[in-house]
Automatic annotation (TrEMBL):
Protein name: Orphan protein
Entry keyword set: Plasmid
InterPro entries: DUF6058
Origin superkingdom: Bacteria
Length: 217
């Protein structure tokens, strides 16, 4: 898929995002300056050559793109009148923790040992990654629940396969791995198809499925 089509299909431009939220660009910038709202996922700089009846000229265009799920986070900021980074983090932490609990109820083995840190420390780390729009690039919509699904699936896959070095798996391990792969597959970005082997999809799904003869269907 062409990058322009990919961005137009799965992302909002700054103008589109602001229209969706009924805010102006100054408000969006203020949210970002105050660490309430993520940075854009993609920043496009285009060198254009235009040919028309008036002649040929060149120009540059700049456009920022946000995942469609960013609108949900903006609506939360508006609804709860969030005006400090501390408030925003608390809502993020509550939402993230609630999604962790849901995954635990679904049978995923989640504990602090899995994260390699206490949950409060982990939440601080992922909050900063959320603000940097890591999840806006890596997940389908940049939603908090997708961030949780991605984080948990990645850690489980690493744990079960010993960082994808284990040569063989037991029946129980294969079952747990298959479940983690399906969880990651639900959360991961569609991608343009041009990223090659640099994506999480290749490293954590395609190569793992091939290595252990699995399927994510």
């Amino acid at each position: 898929m062409q990058l322009s089509k990919f961005l137009a299909t799965y992302f909002y431009t700054t103008e589109e995002l602001c229209q969706t939220l009924s805010i102006d660009e100054d408000t969006l910038g203020a949210w970002q300056q105050s660490s309430l709202f993520p940075k854009p996922s993609y920043c496009l700089q285009s060198q254009l050559e235009c040919s028309s009846y008036s002649g040929i000229y060149q120009c540059e265009e700049y456009q920022d793109y946000y995942p469609r799920g960013a609108a949900s986070w903006g609506q939360l900021i508006i609804k709860h009148d969030i005006n400090s980074s501390c408030q925003a983090f608390n809502y993020f932490a509550q939402h993230y923790s609630a999604q962790l609990s849901k995954l635990t109820e679904q049978g995923f083995a989640i504990d602090e040992e899995l994260f390699g840190a206490e949950i409060d420390e982990h939440l601080q780390q992922v909050w900063q990654q959320f603000l940097c729009s890591k999840y806006g690039v890596l997940t389908q919509n940049g939603l908090v629940e997708e961030a949780v699904q991605l984080d948990v699936a990645k850690l489980l896959i690493d744990d079960i396969t010993e960082l994808r070095t284990k040569t063989g798996l037991s029946a129980d391990e294969r079952q747990a791995l298959h479940k983690a792969l399906k969880l990651m597959n639900r959360a991961l970005s569609h991608g343009t198809g041009n990223e090659g082997k640099n994506t999480l999809r290749y490293r954590y799904i395609d190569s793992v499925v091939a290595k252990y003869d699995l399927s994510v269907k």
